[in-house]
Each structure stands twice: as C-alpha cells, then as structure tokens.
Amino acid sequence: MAMTDRDELVRSLAGLALFADLRDPDLEAIADPEWERRFSAGERVLRRGLSGGGLFVILDGEAAVELPTDADNPRRLRRGDFFGEVSTLLDCKPTADVVARSALHCLEVPGPELEAFLLHYPQVTYRMLQTVTRRLRDLLQ
Amino acid sequence: MPPTRNERPFPPADYPVVVVGSGPGGLQASYCLSRLGVEHAVVSQDETPGGMFCRYPIFQRLLSWSKPDAPAERGTREYEWFDHNSLVADEPELQALVPTFMDRAFMVPSRPEMERGLAAFAERAPVVVRYGCEWQATRRDEDGRLVLTTSDGEYRCRAAVFALGVTTPWRSPIPGIEEVPHYVDCRQPPDYRGRRVFVVGKRNSAFEIADGLLPWAKQVILGSPRPVQTAVIAQASVRVRYLQPYEDSTLGGGTCAIDLAVEQIERRGDRWRVSGHGTTRPGPIDLEVDDVIAATGFTTPLLDLPELGVRTVSQGRIPALTPFWESEPGSGIYFAGNATQGAPGLRKHGVGASSPAVHGFRYNARVMARHLAETHLDATFPRPRIDPGGLVPYLLQEATTAPELWTQKSYLARMVSEGGEADIVPLSDWVDNPGARSVCIAVEADAAGAIYPAVYVAKDGDVRERLLEPHQLHDFRGPPYERELSAAL
Predict the structure, then answer these.
(1) Which 8-state DSSP code applies to residue B1?
(2) Given an 8 Å threshold on Cβ–Cβ distance, is B315 in contact with A112?
C-alpha cells in the first residue's frame, strides 16, 4: 500500500523527541486529522491577546515568536518545538504572536483537550516539563 | 420545462467565472454570484440538482435539524438559525424551502425531503446548470486564466468555484482494507441479520451504520485509535440520531466501541479477521467477524488541482484554504460547499466551524462570492451604513439573532468600519488585517458549553478582545449589555 498522509503524520510524530516514548498505537491515536494544521508563510498561528488557543507542535517548517517589546529579535521555532502551552495551561491570553516563517505543518492539541492529553500520555508530559525547565534555566542564567 | 440536450445552457466558452457542481454548495454559490450580477457558467456531471443528497445518507435521514415551527417566523433571517438545511436567499419565495417538504415525523429531514428542497431552490431561483458535463482536468493558459477541460469541451475563466463535495469514498491506510466494503457499499440492514459486524471508524458515518444495523445484526463493534469524543459529540449533530450504539456500548448491551489501532484486515473464507493493538487499553486485539465495513470517511475529488498549487489537510482529503476559501490568495481557485472546511478559522477552544454542513457553508458562499467579484473582477459593492448612535444596539441585535454568527461561531463576524459600513467577514482574516479602526462582534462558545458574544476592537492595527457575559436565553440586548459593550468600544 502506498504511503499516505496519515503514515507520514505518524512517522513525523515518531521522529520527535516529545513523542519518542510512545508506542505506534498511541501515535496513531494522536495523528488525528482534526488536529492537523497547515499555515502559509506570514500567517499568524497564535495571536497575542486572543483567548481560546491550544498547544501547537511543529512537524515541519519554521515559525517565530514575535513580542512587541522585542520585535527585532524574534525567537525561532523549528520542527519539534512546541508553543501555546503557557496560555493553554494557565487559561490566559498569549502575550506574543507566533507567525509562520515558511509553510508550516503543525499538530494542535485543542485547549480543552490538553489536560486529558497530558494525563493520558505522561511520557509526553515529562518531556514537555524537561523542555520548559530548560527554558527556565536559560532565562535564569 | 427543462431544456433538452440541444438547448443546454453554458456551452464551452470564456466566462468570467465557472462553478463546478450542482449540490447545495454549487447551487448556493451560483445563486450568490447571480445576486451580485456576476456572469458565470455552472457545469455538473450530475443530471439533477442535489449532489450527495441524491444518494446519501444511506439510511435516508439527515443529522441536521429544520424546525418547522420555531421562535422566529419562517421566512425571516432570524428563522434561518432554526432551519439548518435550506439554502439562503433574499427573496421570500426561496427561503426556508426544506421545511415545506417535511412531514414532521422528525425534526431532521429525510434524504428525499432534502433532495426536493434543493431541487425546488434550483428550479425557482432559478439556478441554471449545464448538467451531464463532467469536469476532467484543469490548467492555466498563457494569460494565467484557468482552463477547465470537460466532457463537453474547454471553459476558460478568471476564477473558478469548485463545489465538488467531500463525497469520494476514502479508506485509511490499513493493510487489507482495500477488500473491505466502504460505507457507500453498505447493504440493506436485513442482509446483516444475525451477523457480527466490525465497523472501522467511530465518527458520524460509523455511528450511522451502527444505528441502522442495531435492529438486525447480532453484534456491532466499532473500532478506531481515538476514544469516542463524548464532549464533542454532546454538542454535535451526530448525537441527534446516532448515540444509541454508544449508549449500548457504555452499558455493555452488545455493541462495543473499542479504541483500537487496526493493523491488518484479512479475508478468511466467508469471514474476516481484524487484528491490531488497543490504544486506551494497551494489548493485542484479534477479532473474527462476519462482515467488515469501512466507515473511514470521504475525500474531495480534486483531480489535478494539486498540480496547480492546491495544498491539502486532513490526510490529503480536504483542500487547505485561505479565510476566503481560495487555495492561495490570488489563485482564482475557490471552493464552495463542504470543502470550505479547509479554511479552519480561529478554532477557539477547539470549536470548529459548521462549514462541513449546509447551515455553515451557505453563509461562506455569500462572503466568498463578493470577495471573488471584488478581487478578480474589479467589482465593488456598497455595504449598509450604520449610524454611530445606533452602533451598540445594532451589534447586540446581530449577536442575538444573526444566523451567520450563530451557525459559524468564532468564524464569521459582524464588522462595522470606522465609517459605519457593516459587513459579514471571516473573523480570522479580520483579526490579522483589521484596518485602522473598526469593530467586530462574533458569537462564541467555550469548552463548558457557554455561549456568549465576543467583541473585537481594532485601533491602529492592534486588536483587543472582550468577551461579554452569557445570557440564559441568549438575548444580549438591553441596558446591561449596552453598557458593557459601550465600555469595550
């Protein structure tokens, strides 16, 4: 059988550190077409000041975190990076825009489903915590 | 009297716009273009109007409601919210047609009732279609115009609207599934009497089959990797008719909805073997069943459009679209109908638009037609003006009764510019391109089911969001809301 977009989605997820501990059936469950999102270069993915967003994981492409206070030095996001977790977990509005810098392929875990998702896949939660902790360390250093 | 073959309209030629399809998406798009005075041809491979509703749903009953009597008077704009199946029009004689064909046995129409409603719209509007004309290929000529090759010859146009439906059977990539009958091949329910049936999938079409087979089959098992999204289903059309199999499953009544990544489907004599691994509850699962049915969904028949730059989402099944339902800005390749779900909008709180259904895409068509004409045909259309003194009550009236806002929550919004021009706009486009000063109001819903107006105020390119309080009866008019909205403005 020819490889399909779903196969590609499952393989793409399998290659990310965030999902490295999951079994194939778990990856198939996560590779939900309803969660697959594509953006064109220049399109806003996460919008500063707008509620109701989710957690985005970049599968392919590049995005930038654009803060109004630091417009000249946007943080680049690439395959495997995730964003939107702060506003989703804390139920607050994002404080920055995230803009696609190229054609961008993402998986979005909708906000209302994030808690159940993280509790169901504790391995993903642990790896997220590691990444967030690294970010905090880098900020403090 | 319908035209004969020799009198068929729209022979192959150059047209400003060509619409492909005569299902509800094509009929609505053509009607909206005609209302704007946009010359266009409509071609369809079918012989009659109605598209998928000439064949599906296979169990002959829709999911979406049309309430013959409702809080709003039939034929009014407000009534459209209570009638999710009729196409929309400005003329009273074209409004709310589907309920006129319903026998009130259910609040959702049967398939033939829906088909008659669409045919009546096509006949009375009229929406003129060249039937029996199959679109076969697409390319661009040296001037950048689109060239549509059809069974009747070539059509050239500056923009095309593809209302193709999402109706071509699609199978998920499971080894052995090629042999499995698809939803569209499902036999009559009595043929499944006393049999053990495995249905691949746990979405609308899977539940429809399970519900149809419950009175006949010995056992129905539904399987797919993800658990049934009960929170989603509770607020989705599918619950109207097809939750009984799920209830049966949760009560242990014989039906089973299992979370299974199917890895292999094998034909074994006159039976089938389905094997895979559990997802929610890990472990191997092997099933021997009498029948397997693939309720794995449908795809859009895009033919060669990807070669013209049309990207896809949802495992390649749906075209990825701009907020105005174009494949790329300026491409002139537009979509109408079910495929407009390819423009996801903001999806706030994970809530998707109603674009896959008639009650959502009928409003997309109206916005799309005007955008197409203004972008590709240099047309301009005046917008109604709102007096500044009446702005606040106007916005609250819209939040309370506008069917566009209620059916397309967080997706279509009522916008009023600084100059007082009012418009219905795709919200995701407006928040990214709001102009100097304007205001939008949308109806939104959160994960807990609360419904409330959301106000977006643009000033110097910056957008501020303010969520108003929900109301028990969804009536956002009156002094408390006026005060709150005035403060936001």
Answers:
(1) -
(2) no
Q: Are B416 and B391 in contact (CB under 8 A)?
A: yes
Tokens matching residue A129: 């915590």
Half-sphere exposure of B292 (CA within 13 A, CB side): 27
Neighbour tally for B185: CB within 10 Å: 11
**Alpha-helical runs (H) found in B92-203:** 111-124
Helices (DSSP H) in B353-455: which residue ranges?
A: 358-376, 391-401, 403-407, 427-432
Q: Taking CB atoms and an 8 Å limit, are A47 and B431 in contact across chains?
A: yes
Measured distance CA(B334)–CA(B366) in Å, rounded:
13
Bridge partners, B61 (sequence order): B110
Question: Closest Cα to residue B375, out of B230, B227, B159?
Answer: B159
Selection from B366, B428, B419, B420 nearest residue B394 by Cα: B420
Q: What is the pLDDT of residue B241?
A: 63
Q: What is the mean pLDDT of residues B145-158?
A: 98
Half-sphere exposure of residue B87: CA atoms within 13 angstroms, side-chain side: 35
Q: How far apart are CA B20 and CA B42, in angstroms?
A: 6
Given a contact cutoff of 8 angstroms between Cβ atoms, the answer to whether A55 and A107 are in contact is: no
The backbone torsions φ and ψ at residue B256, rounded to the nearest 5 degrees and listed phi first, read: -130, 130
Which among B172, B311, B447 is the nearest to A112, CB-wise? B447
* Residue type (1 letter), B102: M
- Amino acid, res. A87: S
pLDDT at B227: 83
User: Tens of pLDDT along A67-99?
Assistant: 877 777 888 999 999 999 999 999 999 999 999
What is the end-to-end Cα distance of chain A in Å, rounded? 51
How far is the C-alpha of B419 from the C-alpha of B54, rounded, in Å?
46
- Residue B370 CA, distance from chain mean position: 19
Beta carbons of A52 and B349 less than 8 angstroms apart: yes
Predicted-assembly ipTM surpassing the 0.90 threshold? no
Contact A28 B279 (CB under 8 A): yes
Measured distance CA(B469)–CA(B450) in Å, rounded:
9
Cα-Cα-Cα-Cα dihedral of B147, B357, B451, B92, to 10°? Answer: 90
- Nearest CB to B175 within list A1, A54, A93: A1
pTM for this model (two decimals) = 0.92
